[in-house]
Amino acid sequence: MVQEEIRRLNVGTLLRHVHLGGSVSRAALAERMRLNRSTIMALTAELTAAGLVREELPADTGRAGRPSLVVRPESDRVYVLAFDVAVDRLVAARVTLGGITLDRREAVRPRAGADLDRVVEVLARFGRRLHRAAPPASVCVGVGASYCGMIRPGDGMVRFGPDMGWVDQAFGSELGRRLGLGLPVSVGNEAHLGALAEQQRGAGVGFQNLIYLHGDVGVGGGIIVGGKLLDGDGGYGCELGHMVVNPYNGRPCGCGSHGCLEAEVGERALLDAARRPAELSGRDAVRAVVDDAERGDPVAQDALRHVGDWLGIGVANLINLFNPGIVIFGGMLREMYPGAAPQVRARIASNVLPVARERVRLRTSALGDDATLVGAAELGFSELLANPLDVLTRTAP
Amino acid sequence: MVQEEIRRLNVGTLLRHVHLGGSVSRAALAERMRLNRSTIMALTAELTAAGLVREELPADTGRAGRPSLVVRPESDRVYVLAFDVAVDRLVAARVTLGGITLDRREAVRPRAGADLDRVVEVLARFGRRLHRAAPPASVCVGVGASYCGMIRPGDGMVRFGPDMGWVDQAFGSELGRRLGLGLPVSVGNEAHLGALAEQQRGAGVGFQNLIYLHGDVGVGGGIIVGGKLLDGDGGYGCELGHMVVNPYNGRPCGCGSHGCLEAEVGERALLDAARRPAELSGRDAVRAVVDDAERGDPVAQDALRHVGDWLGIGVANLINLFNPGIVIFGGMLREMYPGAAPQVRARIASNVLPVARERVRLRTSALGDDATLVGAAELGFSELLANPLDVLTRTAP
Q1: Touching check for B42 and chain A: CB below 8 Å?
Q2: Within 10 A of B248 (CB to CB), how many other CB atoms are there?
Q3: DSSP per residue over B331-373, as a string?
Q4: Is residue B40 less than 8 Å (CB to CB) from chain A?
Q5: Left, alpha or beta for A256 (phi > 0: left; psi -120 to 50: alpha)?
């Protein structure tokens, strides 16, 4: 590793602290980065000159003596566009350095198949409007998108989008072309991005080993191992929804197999267990089961217990494999989990080796339905954070 | 990151290349480490002065011009002691920098319970003899041990050793005390160490995402994610043997649960499926089933197919979760796998999402029964490789 790489690494790390912390004193930065104050000053000066941060006196600390200057992100000036293609909606947002969503557009997405052209058209229109509405001196440093399917990391190709029947659709490059901003679009799987978002700004802050389960029609997963998203050789890891838990009596799964976790705990499994008509679907239908169970309806309570047992088997397997500090339930599972928690805890107690479950926490998503959008924004910022000075030079207004 | 850390990192990285490569030219080191030749020369000079490497002219290259000097590990001078507590044997070895096993001792371990005192006594006696037999000018830089159970990484405490019924036994510190070399003993789980060994010196060289399944009485796992061993929050991850694959009709497992992967594919499952008497056990009994199947015995063939189907379900789940480049079958599974491969491949084809299985390879262990011992030696070298100059100063003869 050479000197220039270290400087770049340090500049990026400092900007990341400020981006995630919002406002961090020079003293705190020196401590967290294990660097002396003069190095922090030099790094901050570079980022200030690039228009990425500014320094100011903190609000009155009530202490005597000279206060340490705080470093803030230039939230008025630097932003990304973030997109979310979820099972039931299309969202676009302008998100600042520092993570504030300043503006957003949203459309309902019909569940029936929608082709690439139609989806990209809606998102690109939203994106162009958000970009035009941004203040004149501001600069868009990246574009991130979340998609409910398997994504090739390099170019945002949707390899498999079961929900809309997409196979090998050039989503990322097509959205980039139609936005016309001259910026590439980074695309990630929604559950991967939800996991990153929860770790950076949600229920998983401070955890290095984290499992995020994202329920909608299916069940996706984002798994963080040693502080980094597990992506595997091609970027297609974390498919915990297709872990088979019920191989011989399992419900059929959209993937063609039987007894996958998502077949046993997804939306359809819950609605069938609650004896709802086959034509009912969607988040509202799930909510109705949860509400009925809370009101004491025994059929709905049984349905949650039944699905909760399968969920527990899946979660127990994951804890044995990953020894995580926290398991987070997001998407539809956020609503379902509280009613299923006793079964999940019972399965963990019976199926997980004691030393591997000593300290694990179970939580619902703190960011809720915005977890994936927040993750998309973070993906949009990732190149800037890796290489702040180069990226800003390229994208200067 | 500061200048001193980088130098330490670079010195360690260079020594690791030489340790794993055996003999590496300066030119190759410069290319692999992306450093210029003068930096490589300076780093090599430090390691040479410390007695860790030496430089020499390569064997005649047949080319004109001045050949690049090759850097070799000081294998005659620098070594570790490596120990392996496996289900059926106790092994100790003296392994050189560069990875050559120069001397080893081995004892049969009775399957019935053995207490800490007895196990440590045998290993410490072996270790002291190996140490005394080493050349006078040589130096022992570390001690690594592999144990078939769940290990607390910090101090080598056996948290759970199902095989011998150990709970919270201070194996690492006790072995260190009885060896009397003034060196701490690093202890790792056998399958974790098998995975590292296969990645560094076996079937998994070059793979960044690797799953190693180690079968004996049970089934352990070592999983490498992005080049690093998955350890989780406490070091207790990778317990793939306790992934439940058959929750409602499963065989009882030693852990107290039912239908764990190891209950369905471990030694007892195979022997029962092959209708062998309950008093038979051990590697020879497994080999006899495999041999009978190869000779055409239909009962033995059925048994391998039956167990192979469960193994396939487990491996398919792991591929969906980890999108690995390679899956390696070690221990008893090394012998069982060839006869079960058709079932494993069929399950992968039916249960794994196509994009996640496009490029995965299935292989048997290249290091065989020594995988865990090789891993223990690498663990013994890990502190030296992280911090070569400091460690050598402390342990100088």
Answers
A1: no
A2: 11
A3: EHHHHHHHHHHHHHHHHHHHHS-HHHHTT-EEEE-SSGGGHHH
A4: no
A5: left
Mark which residues 70-129 of A lie under 8 Å from B by CB.
none
Per-residue pLDDT of chain B (397 residues; tens, 9 = 90+): 667 788 888 999 999 999 999 899 999 999 999 999 999 999 999 999 999 999 998 876 666 677 778 999 999 999 999 999 988 899 999 999 999 999 999 998 866 668 899 999 999 999 999 999 999 989 999 999 999 999 998 899 999 888 888 899 999 999 999 999 999 999 999 999 999 999 999 999 999 999 999 998 899 999 999 999 999 999 999 999 999 999 988 999 989 999 999 999 999 999 999 999 999 998 899 999 999 999 999 999 999 999 999 999 999 999 999 999 999 999 999 999 999 999 999 999 999 999 888 899 999 999 999 999 999 999 999 999 998 988 776 665 5
Query: CA-CA distance, A376 to A334, in Å (whole number)?
Result: 20
Q: Could you give the CA distance from residue A194 to residue A189 in angstroms, rounded to a whole number?
A: 9
Look up the ipTM and state it.
0.93
CATH 3.30.420.40 maps onto chain B at: 78-193+372-395, 205-366
In chain A, residues 122-181 whose CB comes closer than 8 Å to chain B: 150, 159-160
Pick among B9, B147, B223, B225 to test the A interface (most A CBs inside 10 A): B225
Is residue A71 within 8 A of residue A15, CB to CB? The reply is no
- Measured torsion, CA atoms of residues A264, A265, A269, A275, in degrees rounded to the nearest 10: 120
- The two tokens of residue B105 are 């001792």
A240 touches chain B (CB under 8 A): yes
Positive/negative CA dihedral, B357, B363, B369, B372:
negative
Q: Tokens 């006594």 belong to which residue? A: B121
- Domain span(s) for CATH 1.10.10.10 in chain A: 3-73
CA distance linking residue B159 with residue B167, whole number of Å: 5
A232–B323 C-beta distance less than 8 A = yes
Nearest CB to A324; choose among B232, B249, B355: B232
User: What is the Cα–Cα distance from A9 to A71, expressed in whole angstroms?
Assistant: 18
Q: C-alpha distances in angstroms, A205 versus A361, A367, B112?
A: 13, 12, 46
Q: What is the CATH number of domain A3-73?
A: 1.10.10.10
Per DSSP (E only), the strands in B259-320 are none
A323 vs B150: CB contact, 8 Å cut-off? Answer: no
A9: closest chain B residue by CA: B1
CB contact under 8 A, B323 and A233: yes
Chain centroid offset of residue A167 CA:
23
For B205-366, which CATH class?
alpha beta
pLDDT tens-place string over residues B7-20 = 888 999 999 999 99
The matching CATH number, chosen from 3.40.50.720, 3.10.310.10, 1.10.340.30, 3.30.420.40, for A78-193+372-395 is 3.30.420.40
C-alpha B348/C-alpha B326 separation (Å) is 13
Cβ proximity of B188 and B375 under 8 Å? yes
Q: Profile chain A (397 residues) by mean pLDDT over runs of 10 residues.
A: 80 96 92 92 94 87 72 95 93 97 90 82 96 93 95 92 88 96 96 98 97 94 97 94 94 94 96 95 94 97 97 98 98 95 97 90 96 97 91 63
Distance in Å, alpha carbon of B257 to nearest chain A alpha carbon: 6
Locate the DSSP E strands across chain A: 24-25, 53-56, 70-73, 78-85, 89-96, 101-108, 139-147, 150-152, 157-161, 166-169, 185-189, 210-215, 219-225, 228-229, 326-331, 361-364
Q: How far is CA A236 from CA A212, A223, A241, B324, in A?
A: 15, 12, 13, 9
Determine phi and psi for A222, rounding to 5 degrees.
Answer: -130, 125
